[in-house]
Every structure is written in structure tokens, then in C-alpha cells.
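Hello again,

I reread your note about wanting to compare the complex against the isolated chains. To keep things tidy I'm splitting this into two emails, and this first one only covers the full assembly. Below are the input lines as submitted, including protein chains and any nucleic acid or small-molecule components. They are followed by the predicted structure of everything together. The single-chain runs will come separately.
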Amino acid sequence: MEAETRKKISYLLIVFIIVIIVVIASVVYYSLMEMRSPAKKMAEISAKYGIANYEKRKLPKNIISDSTFLSLFKEDAYLQSRVLMAETDSVYLTINLSERVINIEISGVVVHSTPITEFEASKLITDGDKFTITSLLSVPLTIVSDTSSIAKVPFIMKIAPKDTSEFKPDAIPDTAFYEPVNYIFETDRGIKIIVYQSEEIKQGDSKDRFMFDLRHRLINTLAAMKDIIEFKVPEYQPFIKIKIPSADAKIIYRAIPKHGQIAVYL
Amino acid sequence: MEKEIDKNEVTQPEEDLNPGIDRTLNDNKNNGPEINSTNTSGMKQKGSSNFLRYLLIVFISLLTFVLLIVFVLYLVPGLQEISSVSKSKISGNNELKRDAAYKNQIGLLSKDIQRLSRKYNTFTSGQSYIVINTTDNKFSLYKNKVLVREGICSSGANKILQTKKKTYLFMTPKGKFSITGKRKHPYWHRSDWDFIEQGLPVPPKDDPSRWEEGVLGDYALDLVDGYMIHGTIYKRLMGMPVTHGCVRLLDEDLEVVFSTLNIGSKVFIF
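Full-complex prediction:
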């Protein structure tokens, strides 16, 4: 009986050790694949927007690391983006990380301005090849999808009354209604613009932000796992994380169209 | 059935009475409580230590699981950033600056920046314009790029009115618009939805009951598709999203807006 129990325990121990080894190996493999993804993304961006695409301009050697050239190139790229967007009648966004300001613009007119309280960007954006990244941003980013803690348009549904007896006047909107504002814009060139409200207006705002962030991380991790299972290097999404006041964050989210455009100045 | 089985079990030892066995049984009976208490306390000790062991295993497993999740969700993205890409070098090479091709490129870029800046500035005309913020229900009036007045307004309620045949959406459109018409003491031609919303029968288009005086205030500035900037009789609702898509202003604000904006003036709504 005792021998049988011991046999059972040793069998369980072996299973346990195997499980531990498999889990550790999976985590190590996952981590290695994830760490390879930024370099893969940079290579993709370089192939599309790197110096090789400017052969016609016959740029001299080393020019792409020259500070004067890069600063002018950056200015030019930002202006190009803004002019392209200003030619439409739509609402668009300009994010100037250098001056720490976000503007809502319509046809070249700044209609709303917000100071950036805090920001953080992927190393790929801040430390990557400046020429390539600037070239990538010379055309406005177009929003392809978004995830938000608030509704884009807070619609109210009403069924038409059959006659005057059924008629009920509309309720007065609750202007004191508050909800935390956090959202993510996913753009066509794979860059994510993550906007969080900077202040804690009500108790639980931090928890809401944490949960929003956690959900975002979970979705990313699951997508990466799917790629890794297929032995593919997962898709890396460079990000710009911005913290701005809640009221401004709400205005921006509601103002920008579903497939609106964004220009970024680094 | 159960009772019968119990009876058999109890009666059986009595039928096979054997003095030897009986003594042993009696001895056991005498020693019984001592042996039982030692066994029970041992068992209890063993049980509690087993329970603690299981608890520890569960705790360690849970902790490992949580740590793994934290590692995957937070540390791996962090490591990703560290490993990301090598920092690009920026220099101010003097030799390069003397290169004719370099100078040419800098010249081309500078010219392009000037051209784009000029183009961009043409978008911002010196004309008067109004900016309407539909989220905060506020307006700002500009003359020669200078803010001349700001205040509260009321914009679309974002209401969907559903009838059996049609769905109406009451929201203020966003983007760039122009003033297409200006009217003093405007009359309001009530749309079908106004009757439907109140449960009233919809009259013909030219019915006199469609015309209403005074509800639009003293002035109306036409935009597109029937949208207007006008006054209101519902002043307590100002600053709230309550309209059917038009922009309502207070009387004094409306007067200034009416006198500042001309036909063709831009209206920026966001």
C-alpha cells in the first residue's frame, strides 16, 4: 500500500516537473519571440520608408544622420501631413510631442488645444532611425479602429409616440454625469495612440485605467500568442502613450471621426 | 433491508462465542480508549500537516501563476522596449556640410518648408469665423484671427427617433461649413419629425400650421441641409445637448455672431 502510494507520488512529481519545464520553456520561447518583434517591425518600416526609397533624390552619404538635415526633414514631413489633412473639411488631430501639445484642427484652423501632461513612446519611435521614422510620419496616420471607455456618440433612443397621449417630453441631460476617459487609436501604419486621462477626478479612476490597460495588454498578449503558436514572430505595434486632462481627452475622442487622421511631430 | 443487515452484523459475534476471543475482545475493549486517542491525535496531526502541505502547494501554484501573468503582461513588453532597436546616431559633420549635394538638399528642403507653410497659412483666412464645441456646448467667435466672444450654446441631442417607416437622427454635423444665408426675425418651417415626435398627425408641406414665429429667436444663420445657428426660447437648456442638430445661442451672443459673420464665413464644428 505504502509502495503504491510512493509510486503514485513519484509519478505525480514527474508530471509536475514536466509541466513546469513545459511552462518555463513556453515562457522563454514567448519572451524571445516577443523581443525579436521590434527589430522585425523596424526592418519592415525601413524597407518601406527607409533611405533606399529616396534613391531618386540622390542623398549624400551620412546625410540621414545629420542634425540640420533631420530637423528640416522633420519639419517638412509634419507640414506635409498637415497640408494633406487641411485640404479636407474633416476634423483632424495634430500631436506635437516636441512642444507637448495636441491640437484639434479643421482646414488649417486650430479649434482646440490641449497641453500634454505626460507622454511615453516606443523606443522604436524615439530611438529608431530618425530618417525612417520621420519618413513614416510624413503622411498622416489614419485611424482604423479604436477602443474606448466612453461612447463615441452618446446616442439616446426614442420610439415615436402613436398619438399625443403617448408623448413624453425629453429628459434634461445630466451635465454632472462623469465617466473616466481612456482610449486607444489603432492607425493604418501600425502605430497605436494611447490616450489616458491624467487626473484622478473620482475614486476608482486609477482602477478603471488599470483595468483598461490590463484588457489592452491581454488582447495584445493573446494576439502575440496566436502568432507564436504558428512559429511566427509576433506583430509589434509601436505606441505613443499620452496623458491629458479628462475633459480634453473626451473632446478629442468625440471630435475626431471614426477614421480620422493624425499628424505626429516628434 | 438495511436494518436486517445491521442485525446480522451485530448478532454474528454472539453466536460464535469463544472465551479466548472474548478475552481478547475484552482486553481490547479495556485498552481501546487509549489506543484510539493516540491514533486519532496522530491522524489529526497527519491530517493537518497534509492540509498545510496542500495549502502551501496551492499557494505556490497560485503565486507562480500570478507571477507568470505579470511576467508575460508587464515584463515582456518592458524587455521588448529594452531590446527594441539600437539608438540612431545624430551628428553635425562639418565635412558633410561643405558638400554641394548636401547644400542642395538643405536648400530644397528649406524651400519646400516655405512653400508648405505658405500653403498652410492660406487655409487660416483672416475672415471672421465661429468655432463650436459640441462636447462642451461652447462657442468661440473670431475676427481677424482674434477671439472676440465666447459663451455657451446648445447642440444636437444625439437622439435617434424611430418610427415604423423612418429613423431620424438628431445630431450636429462636424467639420467645416459656411454661412449660406442670414435672416432677421426668422420663421420656422416645422419639419415632419417635429409633428412625429409629439405624436401629432403630419400636415401637408404647405400647411400654415408648419410655420412658427419667434421660436428661432431674432436671427438665424443658415448652414447646410436645414441646419442653422439661431436663438431659442428654451434658455434654461443652454449649454446642454438638446437640439435637433441646429446650434442655439443666447440672444446677446446671437446678435454679435449675426453682426460679425457674413455669408461665406466659416463655421468650424467639432
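For quick reference: The helical segments of chain B are 2-15, 19-83, 94-97, 100-123, 192-197, 251-260.

B.
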